[in-house]
Amino acid sequence: MDEPRRESLEDSASRRMRLNAGEPAAYGSIVAAADPESPPRGDVEAAPLLSPAPRAVLRPLSKEELEEAAGGPRWTRIRSRLVLLFWLTWLAMLGTAIFIVVKSPRPVAPPLRWWQKSLFYRLQPALFMDSQPGSLRGIEAVCAQLAYIRSLGVGAVVLEGLFLTGASPDGPVLNDSLVTGPQVDHLLKESSKAGLRVVLDLCELNFTASTEVSEVNDTSVSLERLSTVQHALKSWLEKGVAGFAICDTDPAYSERTLTEWRRVIRELNETCADRIVLVRQTGEELNSTRSFNGSLVEVVMRSILPPTHHILSAQEVAESMEACLREGAGAVWPSWTMGGRTSSEFQKLLLVLMMTLPGSPALQPGDELSSTRNVTLPEDQDVPSSNTDRERRLALALYTSLSLSKAREEALVSGSFTMLSFNSSSSTLAPPILGFLRSWGCVQILVVLNVGPDPQSLDPHWAGGLPSAGVFMVGTGLDRMGSVALSALSLRPQEAVVIKLIEARSFSE
User: Fold this and answer.
1) Element of type H or E holding 90
2) Rounded to an integer, what distance in angstroms lies between the CA atom of residue 275 and that of residue 288?
3) Residue 33's pLDDT is what?
4) SS (H, E, C) 39-62
5) CA dihedral of 51, 56, 57, 63, whole degrees rounded to 10
């Protein structure tokens, strides 16, 4: 090899050695001669390609370093104040929400007494009695009805026709030709076992005239007879009677007499359950000739239809129902009965109205079956020929649905009452559509009745401000279910529906 080429190769090798000096050995590199005092490095091919990274030593930051990382002491103070402001704002919002919830008006169910939560059932035990007054067979027939009556949701029974009518200066006297004292005592015990209170009907009895001192020359005789009447009433109350019913045309319907009764009742109410005085309204209005403090009476029993001897026409039924709605609940707690006679197609309408009006319904035998008032209670009894088994089951199902709705919905018990005006499409009967609203808090229940013989649709502008949709609760046909837009609601002839109103937006969701 010539001299110039050899010098060029030596210079190149020398430069490589200088470049690789001080660098870790790598594959294909030229390693400088090792220090003679260092141990041999072995084959270059066995050297690692990458050297291990040095381990990082972790240590906590100092206060100064933290402040520097946070932007300095000024920003640290600002962040602390912002955090404090956030929590103060959150606590203020929480306190405001609690204040609004506590102070905002909300419906609170008023404490109801037992007669305000109960259904009454007017029962005439004489219909079940046999010809032997002293026999218990007749009273056992009455007792056999108690379980059925209780299954209807009834809380109190009004026993009618047990006492002699007319003058009775010594207090109520049992009609011995129908019942005897032991029979009534047995009935009271069985009623208590069945969970039923008993109210004795004293209508058309005149045992109070002798208690008026002004009508008796001998004051001592008057006081003695007054004491006798009070003793008779007290003895019945001590046997467990829940109260007495009188008519607004009876002599007992006077402030003086009822004040005396109230004194007797008050003595027993201190140790026993509340006892009541119930007044049966005999006319279209409560007897206004004897107006006095309503606190002497707990319940006024009123009829939706006026008492008549003839069957009321459709027009008379519509007018009576409208008058009932316009009159409203009144000052004293009402108890509603169907009242006068009408054709069978209106029985279901009357049942719906009676069960949804403010107050306590008062049933008579057959009302729960939407039939004429015959004694048609348990399965083994004969039913009217106009009621087939299917109709009887459907009528009882309607009553059960209404009874359960009244028990579940506070609006049907304590809710406010508002009568609504409807514009019908066409009808010769005025008014063909009746309706009212029961409201409790945010719950609104609409009751609509078509009294006319033709189908009716609601006016789209039937009531401003109310929801336009709802859910069927119950209907007389028992075939209404699910949601409904009120503008599309069409009522069949003599049909009533009960609808729980809801907002349209929540309805669609």
Assistant:
1) helix 73-103
2) 25
3) 46
4) CCCCCHHHCCCCCCCCCCCCCCCC
5) 150
Give the sign of the dihedral formed by CA 458, CA 460, CA 461, CA 464: positive
* Residue whose entry in the numeric block shows the structure tokens 């609004």: 100
Token reading at 100: 């609004």
The token pair that represents 12 in the structure block: 């190149």
The structure tokens listed for 492 are 């069949």
pLDDT higher at 40 or 101: 101
- β 443-450/433-440 pair status: antiparallel
Structure tokens at 205: 């009895």
Q: Is residue 29 classed as helix, strand or coil in its secondary structure?
A: coil
- Strand 197-201, strand 243-247: pairing: parallel
In what side-by-side order are the strands of the sheet with 469-475? 416-420, 433-440, 443-450, 495-502, 469-475, 483-485
Reference 410, options 441, 436, 437; nearest CA is: 441
Record the pTM.
0.73
User: CA 322 to CA 464: how far, in whole Å?
Assistant: 21
Judge contact between 174 and 163, C-beta under 8 A.
yes
Q: What is the DSSP string of 274-340?
A: --EEEEE--SSS--GGG---GGG-SEEEEEEEPP-SSPBPHHHHHHHHHHHHHH-S-SSEEEEEEES
Record the tokens describing residue 107, joined without a space: 């419906």
CA distance 159 to 155: 13
Residue type, 65: E
Mean local confidence (pLDDT), 283-291: 62
Distance in angstroms (rounded) separating the CA atoms of residues 280 and 25: 118
Q: What does the alpha-carbon distance between residue 408 and residue 411 come to, in Å, rounded to a whole number?
A: 9
**Does the structure show a pLDDT above 90 at 200?**
yes
Selection from 350, 347, 242 nearest residue 299 by Cα: 242
